[in-house]
Write a structure and sequence with these properties.
GO biological process, one term: fucose metabolic process
Pfam families: Alpha_L_fucos (PF01120)
Largest sheet: 8 strands, parallel
Enzyme class: hydrolase
Family: Belongs to the glycosyl hydrolase 29 family.
Radius of gyration: 24 Å
Strand content: 25-35%
GO molecular function, one term: alpha-L-fucosidase activity
Distance between the termini: 40 Å
Strand order of the largest sheet: 9-8-5-4-3-15-14-10
Length: 512
């Protein structure tokens, strides 16, 4: 193996997750200008692999990938109408969560092991969960709390109170604004002043932004401005690419460049998902990543700066050497664009009383298929018509956390002796111990490099392979077919794009 593929242990800090030591700041070696590298049509396979090895995540992406388990909360008029996609002409008075308890949401999510929660502030129907200046299709038009309710305020305050980060989802689609002639009205893009002050506006913005937008694009910008300036720090802004149930010839070209600029200006630490430059949809709603999930993949730009897949969103291979070559004719950049795996705890995204949550076994398989494959899990837990998480779901969240804790109890390598060679890392546990789970992580501040690796145990006088992996990235969890008893363990790199630096090599014996 040549020197370009050698393995380095970066230092004690690089093994912080294993040793329990304080990690270096995420920005220590992160160069935000290296999160995407341009591709030339004449690039050879060697050029593409070299460029891919040089891509580095931004500080916000590193922070996001460390979250592992995040939550979605689909809540709105659909909760009360029984629909999954609303129509935009709902009577706001249908929204009546008489027992709204966002502290209960936060406690349940915290106790379930989640670190960030995203609220559907505006779904495709356009109903807004706070009193906006720019639409009447909001909680303020409901008799709930005499028109003074504000779900977003309560949600944001509760999440922070219980130590969770705050995310907001605003659907790009808006069927209510379509009915009012704003969404998909064919207006031209032009300079818009954001925020656009309205009659009786009591705000005194520090500055105004001038951004290109359509009529609806300006409406979205003003809505985003309210959310990002009046509800405290936001850690994730979640967009999808939905168009809603409008006539097929009435398509709104979204002002992605302006939306991204506004988010970067007002919430610079927030990750923009999943139609955004920071993280991508994994390509299914089952919560499962690919067996080999790359964080560096080929992308292209379209529709006013939208970050898009050079290959299809659901292709089985997004980032291997072969994929880089296949995608080259359509690729603008190789970009750090890690995967988020969304799935609902119930069959629907909004609450339906006739549905039951997934079993602990199902959720556990989803965990290993997402967090265990270099992705972040986004689990939807929908509040019910009372405005609380159903007791069955709350119990299931706690059971899920307990199961993961039993799957991955105490790391057996804590305090163990380690040695590093150009080929991998070896651990001496000090005595023979049974192992059936292995957790690996590259120090992604230095990119994602591993293309192939094997886990070996020293048994019966020789090294024996007990597991293998392709990609590793920020998190890879391997389950052995059966427990293996050994004192000496190692990971041996079989293929890599460049120098590999480790953040974690942990061994576990599940307590199931």
């Amino acid at each position: 193996m040549d020197l370009s593929r050698r393995v380095l242990l970066t230092s004690a800090a690089a093994l912080a997750m294993t040793a329990g030591l304080p990690a270096l700041p995420a920005t220590a070696t992160t160069d935000t200008d290296r999160s995407r590298i341009p591709v030339d049509p004449a690039d050879t396979e060697a050029d593409l692999v070299r460029k891919a090895s040089q891509v580095r995540p931004t500080a916000r992406q590193i922070s996001w990938q460390a979250l592992e388990r995040t939550a979605f909360l689909h809540f709105g008029v659909n909760t009360f109408t029984g629909l999954e996609w609303g129509t935009g002409d709902e009577d706001p008075d249908v929204f009546q969560p008489a027992g709204l308890d966002t502290d209960q949401w936060a406690r349940a999510l915290r106790d379930g092991g989640f670190r960030l929660a995203i609220l559907t502030v505006k779904h495709h129907d356009g109903f807004v969960l706070y009193p906006s200046r720019y639409t009447d299709h909001t909680v303020a038009s409901s008799s709930w709390r005499d028109g003074h309710g504000d779900v977003l305020r309560s949600f944001a305050d509760s999440m922070r109170r219980y130590g969770l980060k705050v995310g907001v989802y605003l659907s790009p689609a808006d069927e209510n604004q379509y009915l009012h002639g704003v969404y998909a009205n064919g207006s031209a893009r032009g300079e818009r002043t954001i925020p656009t002050l309205v009659d009786g506006d009591d705000r005194s913005p520090d500055r105004f932004l001038t951004l290109d937008a359509t009529d609806y694009g300006a409406h979205m910008l003003n809505t985003l401005y309210e959310v990002l300036t009046e509800y405290g720090p936001v850690d994730e802004v979640w967009f999808d690419g939905a168009q809603g149930h409008i006539p097929p010839d009435k398509v709104e070209d979204y002002d992605w460049d302006s939306w991204y600029t506004l988010v970067r200006t007002l919430a610079p630490a927030a990750a923009i998902a999943v139609t955004g430059p920071d993280l991508r949809w994994v390509g299914n709603e089952g919560g499962l990543a690919r067996e080999d999930e790359w964080s560096v993949i080929p992308v292209k730009e379209n529709q006013y700066g939208r970050t898009d897949w050079a290959l299809s969103y659901d292709t089985a291979d997004e980032g291997s050497r072969a994929a880089l070559v296949t995608a080259r004719p359509k690729t603008d950049y190789l970009q750090w664009w890690p995967a988020e795996c969304d799935v609902s705890i119930r069959d629907g995204w909004f609450y339906h009383p006739d549905q039951l949550p997934k079993s602990v076994d199902e959720l556990t398989e989803i965990y290993f298929g997402s967090v265990g494959r270099n992705a972040v899990l986004l689990l939807n837990v929908p509040p019910d018509t009372d405005g609380v998480l159903h007791a069955t779901d709350v119990t299931r969240l706690r059971e899920f956390r307990d199961r993961v804790d039993r799957e991955l109890p105490e790391d057996l390598t804590r305090g163990a002796r380690r040695s590093v060679t150009p080929a991998g890392v070896t651990v001496d546990l000090g005595r023979e111990l049974e192992v059936d789970r292995v957790r690996l992580a590259e120090d992604i501040r230095y990119g994602q490099q591993v293309e192939g690796a094997v886990i070996e145990a020293y048994t019966a006088g020789s090294w024996t392979q007990v597991a293998e992996a392709g990609t590793i990235g920020a998190s890879r969890i391997l389950r052995l077919a059966e427990p293996v008893r050994a004192r000496h363990w190692r990971i041996r790199i079989t293929a890599a794009r460049g120098t590999v630096r480790w953040a974690e090599f942990a061994l576990f014996r599940s307590s199931l």
